[in-house]
Amino acid sequence: MAHCHSTPMPSSITRDDHARILLVGNPNVGKSVLFHQLTGQYVTVSNYPGTTVEVAQGNLRHHPEWLVIDTPGIVTFPARSEDEEVTVRALLDEHVGAVIQVGDAKNLQRTLHLTLQLAELGLPLVLALNMLDEAQAFGVKLDLEPLSRTLGVPVVTTVATRGQGVDDLLHALERVQPALIHLTYSPAVEDAVQAVIPLLPTAPISARGLALLFLSGENGVLAWLRAHLDPASFERLEGIRQDLQSRLSEPVASVLQRTRDQVIRGLINQVWHQDQPQHEPFNVRLGRLATHPLWGIPILALVLYGLYWFVGVFGAGTLVGFLEETLFGQIINPWIVSHLTRWMPWPFLQQMLIGEYGLWTMGVTYALALLLPIVVTFFIAFGVLEDSGYLPRLAVLTNQFFSRIGLNGQAVLPMVLGLGCVTMATMTTRILSRPRERILVTFLLALAIPCSAQLGVVMGMLAGISFGATLIWATVVVIVLLIVGWLAAQVLPGERTPLIVELPPLRWPVLSNVLIKTLARLEWYIKEAVPLFLLGTFLLFLLDWFQLLPGIIHLAEPVVTHWLGLPPEAAAAFLVGFLRRDFAATNLFVMESRGLLSPIQVVVAMVTITLFVPCIASVFMMIKERGLKTALGMLAFIFPFALFVGGALYRLLTLVGWHG
Length: 660
What we know:
The chain is α/β, with parallel strands linked by helices. Helix content is 63%, strand content 9%. Strands 2, 3, 4, 5, 6, 7, 9 and 10 form an 8-stranded mixed β-sheet that branches. The chain is elongated, with a radius of gyration of 28 Å.
């Protein structure tokens, strides 16, 4: 089935200013951690050209002429999602000097499925078997020499979280070459390959590899060939592919995979040895308990309480208290106010900068002294949960909950991602296979999922009252999610899909990786949120300067004061909520710190602002993804519904005599 042959190969990666090293691998194999080990912290993250998928790239340490691109995780070819198609596009469009495949050392069978497909592309290849420590904990022993000899490429083992094996990987790049292994398929497939090859245009990958991807129905290759061939030539290729498929009893991709399975079994018998460990590793037991229907609940409660304490008590209490009251309140702001008052004689500019709604005294102070410490602590906590492998387990644990509102499968993941950023989560609904799920998840994200910045402020305010206040807020939001989600699922036709999610092993988070992710998200927050904070502050200043703000507050008074039970000044917070929900929450935070809100009013305000409206960026993303008509329909429901729930909660808490 498989044999090796030798052909002249380059001895090292191409050394030029345009060489690319692609990191390719299955999801959850530590590819991003290895990427940071290879490139350091100075990386850029941007959308891949022509897509909404973000990729990271950075220069290889000690070899800045080589650019490393961290491609999205891919299970196998053909690609199944837009993320995976980006990996295919990178292989076809980039000037690839080498491919580093990152695999899971304890799951060699899955790794080799992708290895054989990459080997057929004819690109210089290195196989890095990562997470060796976890494999050894399972009693796995690998004999790399026969594996490297059979594949004809360097094979190294790494523990990316510790930097172990990175030097070996760098040395392997010096002797990288295309794989030597050659797979022979059934006569029907081989005949089709030989018929296709002469019709193919010149490509950056081997003609045989391109032919096999085309015959297997790889969408990225089909699009690439359409762009590089005239219609008549492409139709001839399509005729060959359809003829092959008509001669087979199953999809071409399945026929190819069966041949590869036979080769993989032979390779594993040569290189894979496993001793039964005496004791099951603790992280394995904990990972299994985290998804258990019974024991997973107290683990989740412990995680949520830790998040509540770190973000709500430490971030919003200790850090905000120091920055707002001591650093800004006693040192920075008095100094700036005194100097600007002395040197700036124009009242308009004075009020614009240091007045009640001043760009500095409100905009910058809110953004840096109140919101920044909350956002930083939340980003750190979210990075820890993400890097530890807990988030996929959270998806499994909450799967039954989401199934009650007509959601399942991958739909759970955008909901979890929405806790980081609703705008980005709205964009990731593209991974869902059915329009019904995309619409439903987009709607629930806009209605009941607070982004990280807003969630941090909410937890900070509620933590200042009691843990019970936090439970009331969370209970109301969850009930709304259930009821509205169930009703929306009844209205939208279609069936839910099953949950398919891969569980990486639970592991200790890598501090450097968490910090890098936190810094990247913090950079995004400063670029995205702070300008909108200043814009919202300037809007309030203009409304106040021209005496329009009292009129707006008066118009909103029947709803804000009589229905929601809040002070009239809260109308200003809801007004700027159109720009960013976290800015609105921060305004309410300040009101609460000044004693203008009672415990009942805080809970009512936080529930209302959570359900009220997503930030303006997520509204634009809703319009882009779902269309103007659908987005406006969602917003037309969300506004009055949020106010209805807030007013009903105010009356309920007042009726039962809750005081915090």
